[in-house]
Amino acid sequence: MIDFGFDKIALIGAVALIVIGPEKLPRVARTVGHLVGKAQRYVADVKAEVNRSIELEELQKMKSQFETAANDVSNSVRQEIHSASTELEKTWSEAADGLNSTSGSASAVDWSPPPPVYQPPRKHWRVKRGAVPRWYKQRNGVRQHAQSGAARVARFRPPHSGSSSST
Length: 167
Hints:
Blueprint: H1 6-20, H2 25-101, H3 134-140, H4 149-156
């Protein structure tokens, strides 16, 4: 970048004052300031773009390293499972051969099915259940159904006695 000291800036200002004149100098200085600001913003945008591209490359490198590590782990797990399954099959075949050779003796193992697993009773999920039991509501007189005022009055009105006699 160009290095401007105080003496160089003062010399440029004096030459500009003489060449441009005192009337146009403020407008020219303002225009130069706007141009310098635009140039700085452009340089900052370019730097940001370069930094983003560098970060993107680093992220891609990290992604590829992570994928290779995941593949390595997957392969090692797959190999361990394969070796464990072959070992289990080998042990199982040896045990089966040992049982077949001793199947005629009285100490044969009973291969009955395991007992059934407990399963909780199925609930009626579509039935709405309240938190308070119905019998408790009935005992304490809690209303369970909405009624209009007239229906409530008619429900609790004393029954009619057939003839009313007033003497």
